[in-house]
Amino acid sequence: MMSNELTRATHILYTGGESKLPIERPETPPIYHSTANIIRDMDDYDFASNGGKYYYCRTANPNRDGVAEAVSYLEKGEQSLVCSSGMAAISTAVLSLIKAGDHIVASRSIYGETIELFDNILKKLNVEVTYSDFTNIDSVRESLKPNTKILYTEIIANPLIEVVDIDALSELAHGIGALVLVDSTFTTPLAIRPLEHGADIVIHSLTKYFGGHSDITAGSITGSKKLMKKIYSDFLLLGGCLDPNSAWLMLRSIRTMEMRVTKQFENARKIAEALQADPHVRYVNYPTLPNHPQRELAAKLMPNGCGAMLSFRVEDDRNKVNAFMHKLKLVKYLGTLGGYRTTIAHPATAFRNEFTPQKLKEMGMEEGLIRISAGAEAVEDLIADFKQALTVFENV
Ligand SMILES: Cc1ncc(COP(=O)(O)O)c(C=O)c1O
């Protein structure tokens, strides 16, 4: 209670900040917006700064810790850090685990901006990166150097939905004392938990399936206590921590993740099968299809479903592909993935500024390649939508 003797200008700065009644166990956690908590004295500061209690938001925040606990549980990891985006998670993890003169072998099929991070920022720090075909373990082996410290990959590679043999990769890396960093955004812990396959660090763009509603930008890093301690000290300096409001929303979204994502996986498989049977579709990339070159590996690594991402190829005709996009009634073209509604993207357009048309073709990103992020709708509505829109490819 504030004294009525204070002047109005002071009183208004202090009044109303304390709850009037005791608050017991609310059904949902409160949002701890406060950037700082009151410190009683110097001893209390020492206690807080040694991890005894919350005192500054960038250092630790209860909402962020709640998300970290959920991610660690899902990934069966010892500890997690929750970052302000997937890119913040990737850059924090990689920058804290390398030093000048180190070498990284990275899959050539990773997220485009991760490649830019490696090429633009790591290069300035004198860290060399070699890109390799991670679907071919011999190619990865040939890329190793005596100073290789990290093997960096995604398990399902965009946009051709190739599968990486994470068990073989971990064995190779650990044989030379290198770490395996996996961006498991596309797979989610519901398809595979990379730490159980020997990976040292698993990273997510939580913006995608964890958030699931296309309304939160966030990322995570999970690993052993020993490695996470190293990463945490740089995380504090790089400053890419998630804000409490987004962390609160993220934990709420994670509550329904299994329901959403299980349905999304199932829808992806059924859409893949329906598109494969459509006369206007040349081929479909999805790991459960009989023609997928790594079908057996995918079934071994991901027995509960191979993710909700697929791609398919139609005629390489820009006008018709545009007409197809216009003709879709439910499905929208979006620059993200993993939301509860089905979306498409056009890889050749997304990578147009980074690669020449020839290089795009060599990488399998022809004009007629369309990527789908399956949502949680009734699958028959999605299949009907795709089928009616595919009629634009009919040759009249
Ligand atoms: C596989 C993958 N990793 C990382 C990212 C970056 O995530 P964010 O946009 O949350 O920074 C993305 C974004 O699309 C992604 O697809």
Automatic annotation (TrEMBL):
CDD domains: CGS_like. Its cofactor is pyridoxal 5'-phosphate. PROSITE patterns: CYS_MET_METAB_PP. It is an enzyme of class 4 (lyase). The keyword Lyase applies. Its EC number is 4.4.1.11. Gene3D superfamilies: Aspartate Aminotransferase, domain 1, Type I PLP-dependent aspartate aminotransferase-like (Major domain). Keywords: Lyase, Pyridoxal phosphate. One of its GO terms (molecular function) is methionine gamma-lyase activity. InterPro entries: Cys/Met-Metab_PyrdxlP-dep_enz, Cys_met_metab_PP, PyrdxlP-dep_Trfase, PyrdxlP-dep_Trfase_major, PyrdxlP-dep_Trfase_small. The keyword Lyase applies. Belongs to the trans-sulfuration enzymes family. This is L-methionine gamma-lyase.
